[in-house]
Amino acid sequence: MSKKTLHLYLSRSVSLSTMNNKKVKTTQGRQKIDIKKIENISNRQVTFSKRRAGLFKKASELCILSGAQVAIIVKSPGRRTFAFGHPNVDSVIDRYLAGNNSGAAASQTCFASNYPSEFNEHYAQISKELEFEKKRSTMIEESKVAYGGGLWWDEPIDGLGLAELEQYAAALEELKKNVAMRADELMLVKAASVPSSMFAMNPNVSSDGLGDYVIDQANDFGDSIVPIGYDFGHGHL
Amino acid sequence: MSKKTLHLYLSRSVSLSTMNNKKVKTTQGRQKIDIKKIENISNRQVTFSKRRAGLFKKASELCILSGAQVAIIVKSPGRRTFAFGHPNVDSVIDRYLAGNNSGAAASQTCFASNYPSEFNEHYAQISKELEFEKKRSTMIEESKVAYGGGLWWDEPIDGLGLAELEQYAAALEELKKNVAMRADELMLVKAASVPSSMFAMNPNVSSDGLGDYVIDQANDFGDSIVPIGYDFGHGHL
DNA sequence: GACTATTCATAAGT
DNA sequence: ACTTATGAATAGTC
């Protein structure tokens, strides 16, 4: 690999020296990689984050475009769990487990994560219609903002996403109303981390519970997050 | 849309007539679309299929590259269920539901699908190792390395594999029988891992023409499929 | 189901 | 984190 890298560097150097253009290749651009475990830790983490986000985005698009229901659970090597679901994780899973295909789907996209125990069943279901709509129009630039702040998932999370949470909370209110009317496409939520305490509450939220969830609104797709914080001590994936 | 289409056609026509090159644009290539429900039925079905495959592939790559565990359940609008899982769907889901991170994971990539009722639990565990083997020979040999070398789940997990493989082998036997009966389309796992795909069998498949499984080995990733056919009458997703 | 022409996702590099 | 060049996914067609 070092050899390859060297080669690449040389190529670039050549380009730089031989080409007398304004357009200088500053990077090699995307390189082809073979699909095998990435040995370099930090690299692996970065890839994990990027690709998980990409996966969720794809899932989101699939839901919207085709009207499908999707649930995804991802566990990082470091034991953190991320989930994506439309209409929501649990309903899809439940149905899967039961083999039950009846029932109408709720219209929302929800994300959840890992908890130490079984609070699972009830956690929130929320949808992000608003964000989605809003975002759909302004789409691009927000991502950066949303993302800014470091890898959300790898820190103990705490007071982050203050403004966002607030904003999010407000959005939820509206959402509640709209949600009843809406139906399928929506998605979104970005992630901020949520203090575990937020999550812990609400042992049993009824259907429109609000409350605890955290969301990540990075892109125009829904993403999810880690509510539970019981394991945060590890500091990484 | 018709307008747009017209435009595009015209553009192509112009290109054809004005450009006197060998290189004639035969298609428009990928077009940008906005993420909203596709109204055209057949189009939606096609997109669903393509994107679901893409999603599973991405998931597969994520698992391999980062060592993550992933489970995905997808329900088509037509109520068919597709699932992807690594090490396998159920283990990931179970863990998710229980919030339990202990336990070793099975060492396989598996796929399952929907059943009319609750035969679920028992759905077949079979894999298409055969296909895989066949492919593996022509494809890549790193599978073992990749798999063995990287603990999929680096930490709680440990040396699993052996027993599992054995079990897996047994499952294969069954698969061989069942495979002949039904399924849908499945894809293959590539290098990674111990590829195994499981799919549920269905006790009663009705007619519908869809045949049964197809093993699609187009790509290098594993995919899963629909065993059950109770709903095939619809003729589509 | 297979083919391009394109858009999209992202590995590297900064 | 941000950019960029490039590999990949895929919309439209046949």
From TrEMBL, chains A, B:
Its main location: nucleus. Residues 28-88 form the MADS-box domain. The keyword DNA-binding applies. It holds the Pfam family SRF-TF. One of its GO terms (biological process) is positive regulation of transcription by RNA polymerase II. One of its GO terms (molecular function) is protein dimerization activity. It is found in: Nucleus. This is Agamous-like MADS-box protein. CDD domains: MADS_MEF2_like. Keywords: DNA-binding, Nucleus, Transcription, Transcription regulation. The keyword tRNA processing does not apply. One of its GO terms (cellular component) is nucleus. InterPro entries: MEF2-like_N (IPR033896), TF_MADSbox (IPR002100), TF_MADSbox_sf (IPR036879).
